Amino acid sequence: MDYTITALPGDGIGPEVVAEAIKVLHAVGARYGHTFTIREALIGGIAIDQTGTALPEATVAACQDCDAVLLGAVGGPKWDDPNAKVRPEQGLLGIRKALGLYANLRPVTLHPLLLDASPLRPERLVDVDLLVVRELTGGIYFGEKRREQDAQGEWASDLCVYTQAEVERIVRLAAGLARQRHGHLTLVDKANVLETSRLWRSIATRIMREEFSDLQYDWMLVDACAMHLLRRPSDFDVIVTENMFGDILTDEASMLAGSMGMLPSASLGSGKMGLYEPIHGSAPDIAGQGKANPLATILSTALLLRYSLGLEQEARAVEAAVSAVLEAGIVTGDIARGEQRAHSTVEVGSAVASRI
Prior knowledge:
Layout: E1 2-10, H1 14-32, E2 35-40, H2 45-51, H3 57-64, E3 68-73, H4 88-98, E4 103-109, E5 129-135, E6 145-150, E7 153-158, H5 164-180, E8 184-189, H6 195-211, E9 216-221, H7 222-231, E10 238-241, H8 243-254, E11 264-268, E12 274-278, H9 295-308, H10 312-327, H11 345-354
């Protein structure tokens, strides 16, 4: 089969880790008889520098005319002015909206050899296998923003809005995933304070009772969830929550694995199209030094193969190759322990590709 993938390397370490993920994709193609045509496009800071916008129209067109999108990272100190009218993050928010991607899936699983890499005690990490489903297109990130000045001084506001349809579709998707996993869904909100959370709770409760009565589900306030993710992470199966809460909780959950360089993500919509990216940022402090961990991006390609292309066997092959590389101790410095040598980004990517 022939597939077209749009690659958005972006900024910082993005081009380095995306290059290794593409290397692994080509290895999958050679092994299983597929052809992956890779088309690169601009996003983020590099797009601002070259075109004046974080998301050029050509990039949107390339992403709309392909089978899946692979993203590296956006941003860096060069574009960090929060008052700038054009910022790299606008490219990320814009492409999600342009592709109709409303659900961000972030799986957190721990390889036994990496238990010591986490700041948590190893005994708390045994059997951790959870999935956070974050709503992507609503909430405070997309609401009306105002900043003005009156007689009392400056003031600002960010409007948080959710519609019934937005809540229904993300809850149904998360519940469906819980049904495929261990049958337990945790719905996270702040219903003791926020009206949007009360809307979430009423809609989700109805859906769970009427459509997913076979599942176990519970509600948890976001602050309690933040605590229990560290206190008893193995108790979670699937977590679903709104945009900002999901953004914060998934970064916290990444520390269970010891490094953001280990965790992939998938942003999905109603069809097969998806955008796949590591959850880490652009890490400009190590860009160009060969220190970046490519495994999160490589694991993101496994999600790409699974969700957008329907290639489950190939996805499992990538995940098995990553496990084999970890077993062999071929890792970058962020997860190297003891006497392990810190390997380069290219060495780790090549090691995975050779094990497909």
